[in-house]
Amino acid sequence: MSPKSSQRGYALTEVLIAAAIAAMVVAASATSISISSAAKMRSDVLHAQVQELEAILAKAKAGMPLRQLRQEHPAFDMTLSALPLSNQPTPMEKRPVTLTVMHQERSTVRLETIILQNE
Predict the structure, then answer these.
(1) Contacts for 31-39 with beta carbons within 8 Å, 24 or more apart?
(2) Among 46, 72, 73, 86, which residue carries the largest CB count within 10 Å?
(3) Beta partners for 51?
(4) Nearest Cα to 56, choosing from 79, 27, 25, 39?
């Protein structure tokens, strides 16, 4: 018995074209997922750095010496710069300074003006 013409299957070219389209859709989806997960990982790292930076600033404001802050948070560079003196006398035990805290990868930076105790 010979098959009827209405029962014929798909031609090889049709199957190959459908497979190629499906492969492109899968590749595009995989690329999109990869980019999304990389962005999420970068965001998580940045968020953790910001949280640690906030902890550093809170400790500095509470009076922790800069030496100790540097020991506890080696991934951050910290520098102090004196602010210009105002006309108002400032007690010698307290001085206004700008504390610059920067992650060594330069991805997180924060400047804060605080009053520090003399070390």
Answers:
(1) none
(2) 73
(3) none
(4) 79
